[in-house]
Amino acid sequence: MVVTRATLTVVGLVALYYTLPLAPRSAADTALLLVGGLSALAVLTAWQVRLIATRARHPGLRALETLALTIPTFLLLFAAGYHLVSQADPAEFSEPLSRTDALYFTVTVFATVGFGDIVPVAEGVRIAVSVQMLADLVLLGVVLRAVLDAVTRARHLRPGPEPAGPMARDTGPSAAPAAPDAAHTRIP
Known about the structure:
This protein is mainly alpha-helical. Helix content is 65%, strand content 0%. It contains five helices and no strands. It has helices spanning 2-19, 27-54, 59-88, 99-110, 123-157. Residues 158-188 are annotated as: Disordered. Residues 73-152 form the Potassium channel domain. This is Potassium channel family protein. InterPro entries: K_chnl_dom (IPR013099).
C-alpha cells in the first residue's frame, strides 16, 4: 500500500509538472517562484519529519512517503524554473529547453552526472544551477538525515513487541542481566 501511494505521489507530481501552465516570466518572477516553492517544500518537509517522529504508526513507511514527496517536488521545482527561464530567453542555455529537457537537465545535475549536452550559458542561470548543486547536497545530507533520525526517534518512543523465537531476550527470573546497549551508553 505504501509503495503504491509513493508511486502515485511521484506520478501525480510529474503529471502536474507536464500539465500546469508554465508561461514565460521575468528572471525575477521565476526566481521568486522558485524560492517560494522551495520554502513551502522546506516547511512541508519539516512538518512531515515532525509527524514521523511523534505520530507515525509506521515511521519507516511514513519516511518513504515523505521522501517520495520531497525529492521529486524538489527536482520538479528546479525543472520548472529552468523551463521558464528557457522560455523567456532561449539563449540562457546552450539550447532551448522543453519540459522534458529541463527535467533531464535537473536530474543530471542532481545525480552529479553532468553530461554536458545542456549547459547554462548566462551568468544568472549558472548561479541558479550552482544553488541547485548546493541544495542537492543539503537535500541528500540534511533532509535525508532528519528523516532517518525521525524514524529512529519514533521507534525509540514506541518500541515494538519483543522478538519471539530463539533470538528473543530471556526476561525471566533466572535471566542474566542484559548488557548495556552500546548505542545508548553515554561516555563521559
